[in-house]
Amino acid sequence: MKPDILDEAAEIWFGPQHVSAHGWATKLTLVGDYIVECDPHAGYFHRSAEKCLEFRNFRQGSMILERMCLVEAFIAEYPYVAAVEKIADLEIPDRAKVMRTIMMEFNRIHSFQFWWGQIAGELGLFAMLLWPWVDREYTLDAFEELTG
To answer: What does residue 69 show for φ and ψ, rounded to 5 degrees?
Structure first.
């Protein structure tokens, strides 16, 4: 009698392995060197934020998410804060919404400045690396003035 092929199978979780693999983990079923089944699971952050937030209150969650993204902290934090506001049925003043939008746009500009400097550095253009990073300091100063 021939044994069932899945009796010898091994199940492993694969991913997310890199920061560019946002939100995907995959359960693979392996038989020897062959993948016989692939079951993708969406919703996993690349730095296990969902696990970090399980035993924290909503204030602590905001601080964790802010520190997980080096370049776009305001943008990475916004969906969490918006969800907390909606669950708590909080109405945010219009002035705060405008300030939040402005800071997220500054954050987007900051991200481009960071990228432009990085790509110039990769190309070996050291002076070109410094120019956007000097301008980026003004954006970081604005962040510091607002957030402390």
So the answer is: -120, 110
- Cis-peptide into 16, omega within 30 deg: yes
Q: Determine the distance from the C-alpha atom of residue 96 to the mean position of all C-alpha atoms in its chain, rounded to a whole number.
A: 23
Q: How many other CB atoms are there within 10 angstroms of residue 117's CB atom?
A: 20
**pLDDT on residue 109:** 87
pLDDT at 124: 83
pLDDT recorded at residue 1: 45
Residue 116 confidence (pLDDT): 86
Q: What angle do CA 35, 37, 40 make, to 5 degrees?
A: 110
In this structure, the number of other CB atoms found within 10 A of the CB of residue 107 comes to 20
Edge-to-edge, what's the strand order for the sheet holding 23-31? 10-14, 23-31, 34-44
Strands 10-14 and 23-31: antiparallel
Distance CA(37)–CA(27), nearest Å, equals 8
Consecutive 10-residue averages of pLDDT for the chain (148 residues):
63 68 75 87 65 79 73 82 90 92 88 85 83 85 82
Determine the Cα–Cα distance for residues 34 and 16; give it in Å rounded to an integer.
20
